[in-house]
Write a structure and sequence with these properties.
Belongs to the IlvD/Edd family. Pathway: Carbohydrate metabolism; Entner-Doudoroff pathway. The chain has 612 residues and is of the alpha/beta class. It folds into 2 domains: 361 residues, no CATH class; 176 residues, Glucose Oxidase, domain 1. Helix content is 37%, strand content 13%. The protein is built from 22 helices and 14 strands. Strand 3, helix 7 and strand 4 form a beta-alpha-beta unit.
Length: 612
């Protein structure tokens, strides 16, 4: 049955939510029925055979072993993406002990159920490993399912932050949707070299005006310690999304690592997970919690903050795991009524620490709620609906965790504004459609005079080809770079960040340039107009494979069109280009992912290997 939309919600928000509910009715009903059956069976742990149970607590200490043997208290599963190569995930090393201690105080136990892989896109950017990045999301979902398949847990907490990791954990958690789930962040690193300064050095390096030593020094000053990278890319968009969808504690997303407040929030998150199990009176399974309203709230948050375009894939895939069918049209229609409230790099000069200091998530959520742009009547891990997420955490004088109402005024209007005077009236994302298929473009960082680009095509089959042309000085005049055979079926849909410095240089020289690609750019796409995630992709028979050098293309982010200005009879006679993709199918483990490339769906359905 579709949800009734409260009158306080903006009419377009309500309309989109309603149509999602209607479109998803059968799939959502089947999903809810499945998790209800799992919940009715009660905690499986108590029904396991003696040998099964003994294996499950063999390595525990005496008190935990006794508790698990008696089966009286809740057992909390910890699914962790910890490794100490990722700066964002290194702080997780000590979290399991904090969580175990909190579980014991609550009369139960906690165990690390399993680890999931956590790759760093910053390390693999422009390298062969990036072709595994998107697929790692679905590997993480599978790994989460394996971790929880022991069925010895009454709830789970998830330790993950970065790009594909959080979406993969959500998909995995939803496969065990009868369990409560709390996501626990670790926070951003402290501010280093400003992101715009880093970008300038990258562009100077691309022009050959500074050497590798200067570039390395700038990068090292920018990425300098434990915590999430401070620009507003996919990792920090993940944290925003987990909070606005109610999977974090209020105000938890952007508290720096290794601080007393961070540890207090981790402890409180574990306590909430213990309180939400079916053994108590406050049972909130994650599969029920993440409904159509929660996902609409997540999309609105994406638009209001100018977040990562990767979530036009990830939110679709996550929702599908809960039986909810989202489309890019939903994203586009929600963007039309969502004001842009934030300017955080690459959409501005500030970083996420400045955003947090200016009022952060509590301010954003409060403004959107007051303007009718969010559903307040949703379930959250904190309880009390989304209104509670206008609060911010604090430490009381005795060191205990407390809460206060968040600010109702921005601390820096160059970074964060209210809905009465937003940076722009609509969200920073637009759906494009036309003869070349469908694509998305992030407009929030693009100057208005560049929202429409009409220019001849320059066609490339890799970002390396474009870089070579730039270095050779053959990229001159106005053009639209077409970088194809970069979709999920072709090579795993890598991010193409190495395109941005040369294209940025050419744009700064006064040329009209843009990008059209079936690959990805994520949250760091920057100032160059880029129609990304083009679907159907070239390797799947898409029209992007028909483009030839010199064809006129019109990218219109105002009217939402992506057109090829070629005579229809000429276009109809075109044969698609081909590319030698074999080098992308072996080495660095890529040969192991042939089944993923064969099974993966289209970008607009989430680019997932799971059935949609």
């Amino acid at each position: 049955m579709a949800h009734a939309i409260p009158s306080s919600v903006n009419a377009r928000i309500g309309e989109v939510t309603e149509r999602i509910a209607v479109r998803s009715r059968d799939a959502r009903a089947r999903y809810l029925e499945r998790i209800a059956r799992a919940a009715e069976r009660g905690p499986t742990r108590a029904k396991l055979g003696c040998a099964n149970q003994a294996h499950g607590f063999a390595a525990c200490g005496p008190s935990d072993k006794a508790m698990l043997r008696e089966g009286a208290g809740a057992n909390l599963g910890i699914v962790t993406a910890y490794n100490d190569m990722l700066s964002a995930h290194q702080p997780y090393e000590g979290y399991p002990e904090l969580i175990r201690a909190a579980a014991r105080r609550a009369g139960g136990t906690a165990q690390v159920a399993g680890g999931v892989p956590a790759m760093c896109d910053g390390v693999t950017q422009g390298e062969a490993g990036m072709e595994l990045s998107l697929f790692s999301r679905d590997v993480i979902a599978l790994s989460t399912a394996v971790a929880l398949s022991h069925q010895t847990f009454d709830a789970a907490v998830f330790l993950g932050i970065c790009d594909k990791i959080v979406p993969g954990l959500v998909i995995g958690a939803l496969s065990f949707g009868h369990l409560p789930a709390v996501f626990i962040p670790a926070g951003p690193m402290t501010s280093g070299l400003p992101n715009d300064e880093k970008a300038k050095i990258r562009q100077l390096f691309a022009e050959g005006k500074v050497g590798r030593d200067a570039l390395m020094e700038a990068e090292s000053q920018s990425y300098h310690g434990p915590g999430t990278c401070t620009f507003y890319g996919t990792a920090n968009t993940n944290q925003m999304m987990m909070e606005i969808m109610g999977l974090h504690l209020p105000g938890a997303s952007f508290v720096n690592p290794n601080t007393p407040l961070r540890d207090a929030l981790t402890t409180a998150a574990a306590e909430r997970a213990m309180a939400m199990t079916a053994l108590g009176n406050d049972y909130v399974p994650v599969g029920r919690m993440l409904d159509e309203k929660a996902f609409v709230n997540g999309i609105v948050g994406l638009h209001a903050t100018g977040g990562s375009t990767n979530h036009t894939l990830h939110i679709v895939a996550m929702a599908a795991a809960a039986g909810i069918r989202l489309t890019w049209d939903d994203f586009s229609d929600l963007a039309d009524v969502t004001p842009l409230l934030c300017r955080v790099y690459p959409n501005g000069k500030a970083d996420v620490n400045h955003f947090h200091a200016a009022g952060g998530m509590g301010f954003v959520i409060g403004e959107l709620l007051a303007d009718g742009k969010l559903h307040a009547d949703v379930e959250t891990v904190w309880g009390g609906g989304l209104d509670a997420y206008t609060q911010e955490p604090m430490l009381n004088p005795d060191g205990t965790l407390g809460w206060r109402e968040g600010t109702t005024a921005s601390g820096d209007e160059a970074v964060l504004r209210g809905t009465k005077a937003p940076f722009q009236e609509t969200g920073g994302l637009k759906l494009l459609a036309g003869e070349l298929g469908r694509a998305v473009i992030k407009t929030s960082a693009i100057a208005r005079e560049r929202h429409i680009i009409e220019a001849p095509a320059r066609v490339f089959h890799s970002q390396e080809e474009l870089q070579a042309a730039f270095k050779a000085g053959s990229l001159t005049g106005d053009f639209i770079a077409v970088v194809r055979f970069q979709g999920p079926k072709a090579n795993g849909m890598p991010e193409l960040h190495k395109l941005m410095p040369p294209l940025g240089v050419l744009q700064d020289r006064g040329h009209k340039v843009a990008l059209v690609t079936d690959g990805r750019l994520s949250g760091a796409s920057g100032k160059v107009p880029a129609a990304i995630h083009v679907t159907p992709e070239a390797a799947d028979g898409g029209a992007i494979a028909l483009i030839r050098n010199g064809d006129m293309i019109r990218l219109d982010a105002v009217n939402g069109t992506l057109k090829i200005l070629v005579e229809p009879e000429i276009w109809a006679e075109r044969a698609p280009a081909s590319a030698n993709l074999a080098p992308s199918h072996v080495g660095v483990g890529r040969e192991l992912f042939a089944a993923f490339r064969a099974a993966v769906g289209t970008a607009d359905t989430g680019a997932s290997i799971f059935a949609v």
